[in-house]
Amino acid sequence: MDRRIVLLPILLATPALAFAVGSTFEMASRKVVISLDTDARYDRYTETSFGALTLFKDPLFDNQGNYLVAPGETWTWRWERLDQPQLVAEFTLTYIGGENGCWSDGDCEPIAGYYQGLKWPCMPEGEYRISMTHNGAPLGSGDFRPTRFRPVVNDLWHTDSLKPAPSAKEEGEITDYYVTVSDDLQCGQPLQDVEVTVKSDVGKDDLSHEHLRNDYGTGKFLPSPGFDASVTSAPPKINGRTNHDGLFMAKYQAGEHGVQETLITQLKRPATDTDPEILGPQHKSSLHIKVPDLVEMIDEIAPVVFADGGTCPHSAHWLTQNSRSRLYVISEIYHYRTGRKLSLNDASVAYGGVIDNKLPAGGRDAACHVSHRLGNDIDLNKMDSGGVDTLESPVTSGEKTPLIVDWLTRLVSKFGGERMPEATIHFRFPD
User: Fold this and answer.
1) 73-112 pLDDT, tens per residue?
2) Sign of the CA dihedral running 163, 165, 167, 171
3) Model pTM?
4) Which domains occur in the chain, in start order?
5) Which residues pair with 55 in a beta bridge?
6) Are the CB atoms for 87 and 78 separated by under 8 Å?
């Protein structure tokens, strides 16, 4: 056997923190090489994750293949903490010998090399010394400082969905955002003073505003009481630090757009006089800014046609359930009365909110609609499916009947709706 990985049995109770990355040393004394590997976050032999692995190799054969170990030879390893003087761990191993070449830990057979490991995922940050003796005589020692836990998101919460601002003069809905930060080795240690940066992006699968995909978010971050933070608006971003519980809190307010957004959380432990900067993995979470439960008006379920005017090139045929049901019945009555179909223009986009102009400059501003944000507005085109002018023509040709637009206005009013005071044919339902 040429390798052993042994878990030291003596681990004194200490606060849970982690072995670090980046500190190594080697010492040679007589035939022993001592090395400290602090980048061993995963051991391929035991398939175990832990903070670090302290290794000792003792070549126990000479160049001619003769076994060098005599019965009774004893090795001792000690881990001591220097900044808070205490013995952390100690392990002693004695070669017993005999016919089977046994050792005090129960292993029997001569070995070509001895690797002694202290596997301790949650080693406290501090100053340490590892020392080794052979038959009571010092073989060497080395001082080291394990660096820090890599910070990871332990828990993150915000609501899944917010309503966009109902108008340019009103505010969108707000969600609390909180994140707790712990170590990456699941030691349950809350990490204080971790720098938390959160930004918002429009998701790549957004349904309402394809031109904004992968662009920065449309809302804004707000500080939470008790947490100092710096905020930027374009792109929306907030930066602060965790408290002694590993907690950071902020708020996010929806803007005017109805979009699918992604909140991206980045963690960093800043450098100190003794420890290097260390980054944690990004954490992404989805936030839907939307008017809830909008449904699409499609010509398969109602006698309508669509003819968008081109000034607002979005797929804006979404309505509330109630508004779509009313429009469905109105379109059936119109088709029955005239034999033609209503021609629909804009309602709302899939998630509601502002319908912008898509331009590279100022593309987030409202374009052809101040309203049409909540799924209860619908524009009709002037010409219906038969090319009849609904603003100028009577309901029945050759008869003294009201103009189509007036007749439709009365019909819409029977369903609780109204025509808005503008030149276009714009109807609004109560919900």
Assistant:
1) 888 878 888 888 889 888 888 989 888 888 888 888 766 5
2) positive
3) 0.74
4) 26-144 (2.60.40), 151-289 (2.60.40.10), 295-428 (3.30.1380)
5) 35
6) yes
